[in-house]
């Protein structure tokens, strides 16, 4: 059983959160709101938004099959990532363990918070070893970062290995499922009841096609969610962003159509890229991008930029030498890339 108090920074456990006007009065619609120093004109933008985003959270939780009290909304997943450090990791004292390579923000936020970051390389086929992760943990390790499907390698992790980390590590395990909608395997947000130390990250930025709206989602036990709510900025999601997100939730059949088109294009791109002479290997993808190992990633990247086609050069990332990360776009955008790759002749 997870003893949350042992994992949480003592100052955070003792924190008395800022109580904003919208928290203190939560009764029925009032006749006059004279409590928050808002200007009475310019409705609806004059009013502070709901600090707990209750309407959006309720609909989102229902869609995702999770309870609202197990749901946190942040200004992108990046807010949730930073909050995990601020809640659990004492600066200059604690450390975190993360699979490598993976999403760069876990390490950036560790640096910002003065927390030691211990990367543990995946195997050469990008598979996760629970033994390697567990062996890297020390008594000061508060958090393990896992990303599945992983950015930039594209693969979903073996759930037997992830389960073992969740069961055998005594601290918090974050499973970032930013690309979960593109994967066939089981998703960890359905398993919150089994693992009190689990935090699952989701986002509206990828399969939900709303990166500009900046809504990241964390699912965890109500105790962990309540800590996140106490530490976050009071009005962390603006009204326009809450409204835009709510209107997308009315159009989920379109979102599903987009997802299917991306998946169909992913299969086509995996096939067509693998047939190109410049491509040595297309890594199997459970996400909306493919990592492609090429003859010369930097040369190809520069030639593509010359043709105004931008992909991500990952050649300097651990285990990704000569790797280009290619996002799946519209069929037209994908064709533009394929044509360009066919035309490139390396010396
Ligand atoms: C893109 C991405 C996110 C999303 O971040 P937002 O701040 O929600 O846009 C989170 N995790 C990973 C691994 C990603 O690749």
List of distinct ligands in this structure: pyridoxal-5'-phosphate
The helix content is 25-40%
What distance separates the N and C termini?
60 Å
> Can you count the helices?
13
SSE pattern: HHHHEHEHEHEHEEEHHHEEHEEH
Average residue-wise pLDDT: 96
Radius of gyration: 22 Å
Most strands sheet: 7 strands, mixed
Shape, per Cα inertia axes? globular
DSSP E strands, number: 11
Given as residue ranges, the uncertain stretches (5+ residues, pLDDT < 50) are none
Q: In terms of structural class, how would the helical and strand content be classed?
A: alpha/beta
Order of the strands making up the biggest sheet: 1-7-6-5-4-2-3
Percent range for β-strand residues:
15-25%
Task: Explain this structure.
Helix 8 links the parallel strand 4 (141-147) and strand 5 (172-176). Helix 5 (77-88) packs across helix 6 and helix 7 packs parallel to helix 8. The chain starts with a helix and ends with a helix. The mean pLDDT is 96. The chain is built from 13 helices and 11 strands. By secondary structure, the protein is α/β, with parallel strands linked by helices. 37% of the residues lie in helices and 16% in strands. The strands form 2 sheets. It has a 7-stranded mixed β-sheet, sandwiched between helices. The chain has a 4-stranded antiparallel β-sheet with strand order 8-9-11-10, with helices on one face. The site of pyridoxal-5'-phosphate has 13 residues, from helix 5.
């Amino acid at each position: 059983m997870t003893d949350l108090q042992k994992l949480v920074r003592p100052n955070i456990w003792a924190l008395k959160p800022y109580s904003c006007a919208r928290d203190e009065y939560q009764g029925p619609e009032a006749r006059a709101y004279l409590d928050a120093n808002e200007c009475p004109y310019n409705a609806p933008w004059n009013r502070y938004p709901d600090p707990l985003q209750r309407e959006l959270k309720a609909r989102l939780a229902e869609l995702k099959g999770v309870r609202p009290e197990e749901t946190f909304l942040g200004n992108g997943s990046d807010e949730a990532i930073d909050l995990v450090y601020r809640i659990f990791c004492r600066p200059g004292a604690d450390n975190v363990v993360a699979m490598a390579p993976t999403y760069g923000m876990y390490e950036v936020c560790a640096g910002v918070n003065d927390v030691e970051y211990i990367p543990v390389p995946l195997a050469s086929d990008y598979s996760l070893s629970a033994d390697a992760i567990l062996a890297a943990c020390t008594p000061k390790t508060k958090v393990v970062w896992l990303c599945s499907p992983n950015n930039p390698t594209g693969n979903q992790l073996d759930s037997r290995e992830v389960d073992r980390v969740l069961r055998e590590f005594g601290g918090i395990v974050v499973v970032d499922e930013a690309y979960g909608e593109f994967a066939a395997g089981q998703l960890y947000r359905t398993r919150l009841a089994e693992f009190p130390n689990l935090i699952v990250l989701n986002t509206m930025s990828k399969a939900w096609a709303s990166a500009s709206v900046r809504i990241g989602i964390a699912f965890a036990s109500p105790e962990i969610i309540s800590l996140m709510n106490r530490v976050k900025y009071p009005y962390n999601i603006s009204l326009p962003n809450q409204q835009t997100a709510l209107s997308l939730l009315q159009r989920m059949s379109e979102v599903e159509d987009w997802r299917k088109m991306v998946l169909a294009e992913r299969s086509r791109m995996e096939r067509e890229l693998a047939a190109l002479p410049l491509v040595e290997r297309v890594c199997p993808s459970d996400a909306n991008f493919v990592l492609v190992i090429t003859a010369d990633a930097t040369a190809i990247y520069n030639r593509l930029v010359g043709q105004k086609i931008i992909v991500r050069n990952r050649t300097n990332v651990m285990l990704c030498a000569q790797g280009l990360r290619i996002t799946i776009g519209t069929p037209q955008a994908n064709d533009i890339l394929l044509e360009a790759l066919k035309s490139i002749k390396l010396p």
